[in-house]
Amino acid sequence: MADSLVIVESPAKAKTIGKYLGKKYIVKASMGHVRDLPKSQMGVDIEKDFEPKYITIRGKGDILKELRDASRKVKNVYLAADPDREGEAIAWHLAHSLNIDETKACRVVFNEITKQAVKEAFKNPRKINMDVVNAQQTRRILDRLVGYNISPLLWKKVKKGLSAGRVQSVAVKLINDREKEINAFIPEEYWSVTASLLSGKEPFEAKFYGINGEKTEIRSEEEVKKLLSEIKGKDFIVSEIKKRERKRNPAAPFTTSSLQQEAARKLNFRASKTMMIAQQLYEGIDLGKEGTVGLITYMRTDSTRISQIAQEEAKKYITEAYGQPYALSEPRQFSKKEKAQDAHEAVRPTLVATTPAELKSFLSRDQFKLYQLIWERFIASQMASAVLDTVSAEILCGNAVFRASGSQIKFPGFMKVYVEGTDDAEKEDDRMLPPLEEQQKLMLSNVEPKQHFTQPPPRYSEARLVKTLEELGIGRPSTYAPTLETIQKRGYVSMQDRRFVPTELGEIVITLMEEFFPEILDTEFTAKMEADLDHIEEGKEQWSGVLRDFYSDFAKRLEVAEQHMQEIEIEEEVSDIVCEKCGKYMVYKMGRYGKFLACSGFPDCRNTMAITKEIGVDCPKCGGAVVERKSKKNRIFYGCSHYPDCDFVSWDKPLPRKCPKCSELLVEKKKKGKGGGTTVHCAACDYEEQSS
Q1: Burial class (CB in 10 A: 0-12, 13-18, 19+), 23
Q2: Could you tell me which residues come within 8 angstroms of residue 137 by beta carbon, excluding any fewer than 6 positions away?
């Protein structure tokens, strides 16, 4: 007979934990939060020191009744929500709803859902930590004060359905500011000059560095011609050779932020998708005979810390799988980031010795990809450093200095398993130079000048934006994914080529916010608010005092904005396309995935159309025009303009020429992996062309 009830957030987590606890425990799921502030009103009594008014979330009545009934039949009730602020708040709300004494040891937390961790946690239950609850409650109230005061103002002055928030507004401002930088950027011309040289019969390249040992920028074609004339007919002589051995260390195991960034780079995952799949891996996967097992530690963390047990397991696996030279004699310690709470371990696998390949049959395709990424990153972080031999040579041609460098992996170390991705296209040169000697005369094969132009800073990808928000101290691990979703849903930004682009609406809203609520957009102010929340959690500040300090100035700005913010009418851009349903002209609208066409007769006519782009290819099925479209997940595909009458569709871009082998459709397919590029192949036969 069960004598204890355990309440977690999800059925998957309940299933995993129930397997470890045995028959004396009933494990049920609350399905997330059970109480929250009401949607229909502010729900915060400012006059009563910001007292929140919580109500049962619609649809949670039956769940609470089931939990109450179950709690009456047992001696003990344990609240085992996730080990973060959100989880502590869920536990506190459950305690209130079920009349559980929150001063008793009813709270159980664990960083990983494994048998050992769960059993150990239930040996050491604790009281609900009200400092942590108050930190979460303060964030919720702050967001409500900002959102429920500024949003109606924006509805009245600009457009219905808009919203404002502390973190989301800063994110949109960053995207807007970057767009301004790009628009104001003036490209500057510069040139590179590369000499193709021979040492004996071995070719290599050396790039122009400068004149008389000083770095010299070449800014025009005239300067290139002058350089070429100066070196014409002169010998290329090796003046100096430097050889050294250097070590390269692995990246730290994942935090929430670095996981989102790397999954975006290597797997093309959106932040929300990464967190959804990570949650599944954390809560548990059915491994057949072994039952349901949590495969990774808690995925909302800002720490790179690793437990001693996990380090020992990693060392044992690395020694057995790769050999003693690849293992560390002493565990590697990663420095703690400034502002990191360091409440949990880094994101790592719970079954260190179980490779992704061994679990592949139990995982979905995306689960496998993310688990493999987490497993490889963790294992690599506990492996020996890579050792590289590097050689650099300085080559003189008259007064002109050319430089050549190369590197070669002497000992791969961690690189045998994993190498961190980058946002930049630059790749380390892994080619070694041929044997060279000082004063050696080289043979010139060719000199190639190339014209370049400086580039503006790139638009933010999800990975770059998450990294920037983290560096500025804006938001916390759990806030990044929902923030990126919200700014797109509101139409403040759109995605083009997987980069954020501000919309006209986003620019208008941020302009108004900058004028009337500058502190909300001030990154230092927002970062200070995050620090205040941390201080509340640590018991160093009173939550109501933080809210009072914020609201005293905020209320004054609200009053000014109500009186002086001008109404702005956003004129819709009318297209030359006529609505097929009512005959009125279609207008351009901005949605989550960019622009689309909607009938100007809305709401009487709700017809919408995707904006399509012809690519100059005839449909192989009906002869209509093939157009570029976007899926609901913002992925580009190609289909017939006569859809739905013609169902031709292709993920690969059709080309305007036919296959020389069978005269069928040729398509351009993007290559996967680090190298990138494209291949051209036939959709019907095995014909394939050289990749670009």
Answers
A1: exposed
A2: 52, 89, 543
Over range 665-673, report the average pLDDT. 78
Catalytic: 298? yes
Angle at 176 between CA 170 and CA 177, to 5 degrees: 90
pLDDT digits (tens, 9 = 90+) for 603-656: 889 898 877 788 889 998 888 889 988 776 667 889 998 887 888 999 899 998
Whole-number average pLDDT of the chain: 90
Active-site residue, selected from the candidate residues 25, 78, 282, 298:
298
In which band, very low, low, confident or very high, does the pLDDT at 201 lie, cut at 50, 70 and 90?
A: confident
CB neighbour class for 306 (10 Å; exposed up to 12, middle 13-18, buried from 19): buried
Q: Are strands 400-411 and 386-397 parallel, antiparallel or unpaired?
A: antiparallel
* Beta carbons of 659 and 682 less than 8 angstroms apart: yes
Nearest to 247 by CA among 189, 332, 306, 180: 332
- Give the angle 508-510-511 at the CA atoms, nearest 5°: 65
| Residue 593 to residues 27, 48, 485, 615, Cα–Cα distance (Å) | 41, 43, 11, 20
Confidence of residue 579 (pLDDT cuts 50, 70, 90): very high
Using DSSP's 3-state secondary structure scheme, residue 550 falls into: helix
Rounded distance between C-alpha atoms, residue 229 and residue 242, angstroms: 29
The answer to whether residue 661 scores a pLDDT higher than 70 is: yes
Residue 543 CB coordination number (10 Å): 25
- Tell me the pTM: 0.78
**Strands 25-29, 4-8: pairing kind:** parallel
| C-alpha of 108 from chain center | 30
Residue 594 pLDDT class (50, 70, 90 cuts): low
| Mean pLDDT, residues 483-512 | 90
- If you write DSSP's letter for every residue of 3-64 in order, what string do you get? -EEEEES-HHHHHHHHHHH-TTEEEEE--S-SEE--SSS--EEGGGTSEE--EEPTT-HHHH
